[in-house]
Design goal:
Number of helices: 10
Strand order of the largest sheet: 1-2
Distance between the termini: 53 Å
Shape: globular
Structural class: mainly alpha
Helix content: 55-70%
Largest sheet: 2 strands, antiparallel
Family: Belongs to the Lgt family.
GO molecular function: phosphatidylglycerol-prolipoprotein diacylglyceryl transferase activity
Order of helices and strands: EEHHHHHHHHHH
Main location: membrane
Pfam families: LGT
GO cellular component, one term: plasma membrane
Radius of gyration: 19 Å
Length: 260
């Protein structure tokens, strides 16, 4: 069994102002995505495709808004709507956790669609450019969940089990770290290598959707479902798995559709 490090969720206190690790993880995610996008936009192939630093800065500013607004609203709508209807002020307390990847994805797609129309670029070309920048953000987000001691897995007697402060006395799967490794590190390496040269439109986005869907669906089997929802069907289907189904379908279509 591994020892949970029990890191304080508050990284820094400046008088009455508290800086939370969860919020810092979003800052690290955006900085990583911005740096990677800037580097890629400076490569000859991407310059030829019409990318430059100014376009990256503008696009990622809107993408950041889409991530935060979409991720929070997605969590509110998909996971805990009655509580937030009862206490609307809680919607804005994102430092306490409660962000939905699928909601964030919708926010990113909406902002990407709006930006692509304004800049006269093909929507799927923009999504293909952004897709490899997402896994580092997923990595940092899951590390934030781990520090918060939330979204832990089911009880296990395996060597990777941890006793989480909010998870009772029994060791549990550190499912946040599983997701950080798969959805963050592995997905990033695969996508970055695959997208190192320009691929047919939609292929990079399709690979992202399929791999994320597979990784998330698999980890959900050892992740404790949200207590307010539990299992939705068959004693194992979670909301996270249900939301991955349309993502997998869309990803497979993008990967295998004929290219004109």
């Amino acid at each position: 069994m591994l020892a949970y490090p029990n890191i304080s969720p508050v990284a820094l206190s400046l008088g009455p102002v508290q800086v939370h690790w969860y919020g810092l993880m979003y800052l690290f995610a955006f900085l990583a995505g911005w740096g990677l996008a800037r580097w890629r936009a400076s490569r000859p192939a991407w310059i030829a495709a019409g990318w430059n630093g100014q376009k990256v800065d503008d696009l990622l500013t809107w993408i950041m808004l889409g991530v935060v607004a979409g991720g929070r609203l997605g969590y509110v709508l998909f996971y805990d709507l009655p509580v937030y209807l009862d206490q609307p002020s809680e919607i804005f307390k994102i430092w306490n956790g409660g962000m939905s990847f699928h909601g964030g994805l919708i926010g990113v797609l909406l902002m990407g669609w709006w930006w692509s129309r304004r800049n006269k670029k093909k929507f799927m070309d923009v999504v293909d450019f952004v897709a490899p920048l997402v896994p580092p953000g997923l990595f940092f987000g899951r590390i934030g969940n781990f520090i918060n001691g939330e979204l832990w897995g089911g009880v296990t007697d395996g060597p990777l089990g941890m006793v989480f402060p909010t998870g009772g006395p029994l060791p549990r799967h550190p499912s946040q770290l599983y997701e950080a490794g798969l959805e963050g590190l592995v997905l990033f390496v695969v996508l970055w290598v695959y997208s190192s040269r320009i691929r047919p439109t939609g292929r990079v986005s399709g690979l992202f959707a399929v791999l994320y869907g597979v990784f998330r669906f698999a980890v959900e089997f050892v992740r404790q479902p949200d207590p307010q929802l539990g299992y939705l069907a068959f004693g194992w289907l979670t909301m996270g798995q249900l939301l991955c189904v349309p993502l997998l379908i869309a990803g497979l279509w993008l990967l295998f559709r004929p290219v004109k």
